[in-house]
């Protein structure tokens, strides 16, 4: 069966939203990456997902015979962007992403900047008419430096990519992930007062304000745990990781330490006497068989 998310009510008669879940489950991807189809007549795709032919086939089936106006990327991580070239070819549609995402992926496409709008349901190269549906670009670094989110207007549905997930917590991994930027991006999204969150992984979130607040508090709680670990004698990244996370599967230690390091950078930015961060890691997403166990039922 083809897994999809169809939010129960669309909020407007003119906008249809559907999520197609890619078959790439794992500790960092939860049940898999979601490719979002947005639009009633023609559609805009958000995050084509991993380069898996079976996933592209599912997306093609969901698109049906409709025109795809644009393929948008939230960020360059492989589980969101690797399928972009094949999707652009299959649908004859332009890629649109932040300049950082285009640089990292090597894709040609239109650069999206904070505040730009992408029309939905119309011709891709036409500016939206007042009152019609569009996606507004929101720059939201923190999980990754190149990360953007999309606010569907007028519904105020927010496509959050990897900044906020449908369950668990999002990965902020040093050095690409920056805690100061992450917290600022969460506050920026809270100020938008979204009606619903549509994440890149996990189910849609109806209690948008509550979830954003939980994510902000989770990060601050974790940072306080790390401060306590330092105050009680942990002096290295691995000692702090052990103190905060306890015994961990070896396959998850690097991600946990990259998360600890992102907090250490933030503590030092705050002027606190924190140990040097470790080298960190870039988010890697191997096949599920290589990934055992989970960090506290979520991601680091
Ligand atoms: Zn990511």
Q: Which cofactor or ligand species appear? A: zinc ion
Q: Class of the largest domain, according to the CATH hierarchy?
A: Alpha Beta
Strand content: 15-25%
Outline the biggest β-sheet: 7 strands, mixed
- pLDDT under 50 segments (min length 5)? 8-14, 123-128, 285-300
- SSE string, helix = H, strand = E? EEEEHEHHEHEEEEEHEHHH
Helix content: 25-40%
Based on CA atoms alone, the radius of gyration comes out at 19 Å
- Average pLDDT, all residues: 88
Number of continuous helical runs: 8
Q: Termini distance?
A: 31 Å
Structural class category:
alpha/beta
Tally the structural domains: 2
Shape: elongated
Strand order of the biggest β-sheet: 1-2-3-4-5-6-7
Report the CATH superfamily of the largest domain. Ribonuclease Z/Hydroxyacylglutathione hydrolase-like
CATH topology of the largest domain: Metallo-beta-lactamase, Chain A
User: How many beta-strand elements?
Assistant: 12
CATH architecture of the largest domain: 4-Layer Sandwich
């Amino acid at each position: 069966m083809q897994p999809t998310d169809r939010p129960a009510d669309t909020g407007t008669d003119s906008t249809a939203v559907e999520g197609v879940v890619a078959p790439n489950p794992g500790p960092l991807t939860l049940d898999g990456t979601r490719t979002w189809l947005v639009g009633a007549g023609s559609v805009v795709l958000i995050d084509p997902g991993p380069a898996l032919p079976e996933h592209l086939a599912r997306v093609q089936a969901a698109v049906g015979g409709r025109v795809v106006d644009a393929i948008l990327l939230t960020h360059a991580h492989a589980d969101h962007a690797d399928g972009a070239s094949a999707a652009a070819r299959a649908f004859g549609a332009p890629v649109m992403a932040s300049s950082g995402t285009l640089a990292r992926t090597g894709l040609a496409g239109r650069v999206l900047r904070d505040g730009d709008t992408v029309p939905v349901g119309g011709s891709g190269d036409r500016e939206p008419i007042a009152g019609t549906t569009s996606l507004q670009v929101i720059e939201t670094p923190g999980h990754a430096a190149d990360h953007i989110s999309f606010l569907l207007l007028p519904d105020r549905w927010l496509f959050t990519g990897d900044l906020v997930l449908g369950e668990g917590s999002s990965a902020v991994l040093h050095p690409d992930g920056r805690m100061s930027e992450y917290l600022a991006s969460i506050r920026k999204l809270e100020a938008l007062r979204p009606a619903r969150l549509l994440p890149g992984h996990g189910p849609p979130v109806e209690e948008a304000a509550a979830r954003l607040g939980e994510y902000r508090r989770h990060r601050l709680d974790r940072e306080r745990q790390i401060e306590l670990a330092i105050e009680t004698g942990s002096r290295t990244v691995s000692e702090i990781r052990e103190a905060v996370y306890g015994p961990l599967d070896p396959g998850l230690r690097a991600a946990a330490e990259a998360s600890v390091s992102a907090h250490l950078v933030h503590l030092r930015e705050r002027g606190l006497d924190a140990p040097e961060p470790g080298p960190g890691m870039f988010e890697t997403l191997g096949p599920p068989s290589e990934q055992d166990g989970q960090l506290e039922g979520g991601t680091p």
